[in-house]
Amino acid sequence: MSKQKTQIEFRYYNIPEGDYVLAKLGPGWEQEYGLGLNRMLHFHNYFEIGYCYHGKGELIIEDRVYNYSDDCFSLIPQNVPHVTVSAPGNICKWEFLFVDIEAFIRDEFRGTSLSCDDIIRIVNKRGTMKTKKNHAAMAKLIRNIIEESRRKDLYYRQSIIGYLYALVVEIMRLDEEREMAKHVDRINNYIKSAIDYIGKNYADEIKIQELADVCGLSESHFRRIFVESMGNATVSSSL
Q: Is the domain of 17 the same as that of 81?
């Protein structure tokens, strides 16, 4: 029997000329998500920002599954497959912003220390879901953009540009947090491998080069990692 192919739907939106953001707001977005064809993975031609006011369920982004609840928000680059599925019988209220993030960055970030291409790459690196509890500044910026889009008061476009600029900066900081967490995990794994080796060979004289070899590092690199992890400890050629 042939394996059934996963169907993925392309959902296209058109942002009005002169704007960077298309807001999908109102009571039509309060529903039980994931019923029928709405359970199908889909992707968009713009960066999607979603805000969940209430409800619970799962948000699937590519091969990752996030459990969402009140005051969660999603950041999903264009062309990234995803789907929102409410818990059975659960009515959830989401509202969405679709952003021409590339055009915005090229227009508004010209002349900054990072190139526009680098900023676009960082912002589009991966989709994710976060909570207001852990990322209050980002949640507030998203809510501000939503409310400006809803009210359309005088100069709302200029206000949205300001909030969106700050949001892009927060997304870039989020990437820095991820990279730092990966760095810490790598360091911890190196140190754990070295400690495990010492524990198994404590009766022998152990050379620093041996520990470096266990970690797949040069001796000088291992020394730097050891000092970084242990403070100002002195590392001799043997233990």
A: yes
3-state secondary structure of 52: strand
List, for residues 176-200, the tens digit of each pLDDT value.
Answer: 766 555 555 566 777 777 778 787 8
pTM of the model: 0.76
Is the domain of 162 the same as that of 107?
yes
Q: How many CB atoms lie within 10 A of CB 121?
A: 12
Cα angle for residues 35, 39, 43 (degrees, 5° grid): 140
* Tens-place pLDDT, residues 77-130: 999 999 999 999 999 999 999 999 999 999 999 988 889 999 999 999 999 999
Give residue 55's domain range: 8-180
- Pairing, β 57-61 against β 64-68: antiparallel
Q: Where are the beta strands (DSSP E) in 181-228?
A: none
Whole-angstrom distance, CA of residue 175 vs CA of residue 183: 12
Residue 47: name the closest of 82, 97, 11, 107 by CA: 97
The residues near 80 (Cβ < 8 Å, ≥ 6 apart) are 43, 61, 62, 126, 127
The length of the chain in residues reads 239
